[in-house]
Amino acid sequence: MPATQLLRALPSIDALLRTREARALAERTGLPRLTALARIVTDELRAELQQQQAGDTAATPGANGKPTRAELLAEAVGRLERAVSRAGANDVHRVVNATGVILHTNLGRAPLSEAARRAVAEEAAGYCTLEYDLETGARGRRGGRAEDLLAELTGAEAALVVNNCAASALLVLSTLARDGETIVSRGELVEIGGDFRVPDVMAESGTRMVEVGTTNRTKLADYERAITTETRLILRVHPSNYRIVGFTAAPALVELCALAHARDLPVYEDAGSGALLDLGAYNLDEPVIRESVRQGADIVTFSGDKLLGATQAGLVVGRRALVERCRRNPLYRALRADKLALAALAATLDAHARGATFTEVPALRMLAATRDDIEKRARAFLRRARARLDADAFQFEIIAGQSAVGGGSAPTTHPPTALIAVTHAHASAAALEAGLRQRVRPPVIARILDGRVVLDLRTVAAVEEPELLDALCALRDG
Ligand SMILES: *Cc1c(COP(=O)(O)O)cnc(C)c1O
């Protein structure tokens, strides 16, 4: 086929959009988006054909592999389908988290409680009393309910809610220490995932960082020597995602507060993980916010979607005068939380306040589950799986393993768990794992351990178990 004829065989955007496949895709994407993708696909094909032609004259004149009009259309349809599915892969999907990593950062950290989901869907999705006082009919305090609960749960005088913990650190540092010095231990200059680096946030806030001590040891006297007339704040950062062990020292928070208060300086603790209760029973050594406040920290910040188990939010609690200064900072207007987050947060805090932490808040319920609890669920799941799946192809075994807390919290805590190890007679572990991730709705995210796919039910909600089973069945069918 001569070159120009070949180019003429290229389907037009219109012809491509008229195919049965494209009409089905348009239902999903809408016609304007599909048209844009169809243009990209046909442009791409045209460019490739032109390139081939240029090569042909030199290398393969009269090559017989010239595609026909129908073949080119089929090729374009295939490319269009892949383009739509690639675009869809970037959407936010609900997934089943079978990794056993409770606060999986890439999977959205803490899953919301039933009450929090209802609050988002019902209270916040329409009009709501975000900044409205029903009693007086006048303007109310934004996030008032969440703030009151935070103060109650932490014993602090006042609270404030912003977009995330990084934002709360920026707000506090900028409000209390801009243009002055902030003293921090060299052992606490941490990087939390996603580019939150303490020195960078300090620089951005306009405070000058004064480092004291060494990586492993910082003494009270180191802080004391660093205090000048320029000092505005003493910062303590919880090294959330790592631990320094061995020859280490750091003054107790209460000692640091005594030193600071004797010099009229406030102490700010960035606690990060936001444990409202002592989780020592689950081998966690995360700071308890109420304890930090009790020991004298003047202001404390933490995340809403780590061990508090709510939505992404940055929570500021502490002395009223300091919290109110943060509220008056124009940065607060830029960093404040939205109504959906505030609704989910208030509903979750309400569960903590009612003492329902381990029954209603999913992340904490998952953390509290014992190996025995999980093994019982795994056995029941396997009974249902064996009834539906071909015993010759699929092999299951329950093995001892470890879950993780994730979200940059408690890096040394590995809750013991019971894993379901899955093997298949005709598919590799990598193929099974990819199949679960790519071929089923909702996608199932699993781990590979010692050459086998393993499923950890710790992070799979009971209502998701049928979906997990369907996913395994779909692998068999596929
Ligand atoms: C996680 C963490 C942050 C960042 O919190 P985000 O909610 O992700 O913004 C800041 N400081 C500490 C100590 C943390 O652990």
Q: What is the residue-mean pLDDT, rounded to a whole number?
A: 93
Which stretches of 5+ consecutive residues score pLDDT under 50? 58-63
From the 3D coordinates, which CATH architecture of the largest domain would you assign? 3-Layer(aba) Sandwich
What coarse outline follows from CA principal-axis ratios? globular
At the first level of CATH, the class of the largest domain is Alpha Beta
User: Could you name the CATH homologous superfamily of the largest domain?
Assistant: Type I PLP-dependent aspartate aminotransferase-like (Major domain)
Number of helices: 20
How many whole angstroms does the radius of gyration measure? 28 Å
Distance between the termini: 39 Å
Strand content: 15-25%
Largest sheet properties:
7 strands, mixed
Which bin fits the share of residues in helices?
40-55%
Q: Compute the number of strand runs.
A: 19
Task: Compute the number of structural domains.
Answer: 3
Strand order of the largest sheet: 5-13-12-11-10-6-9
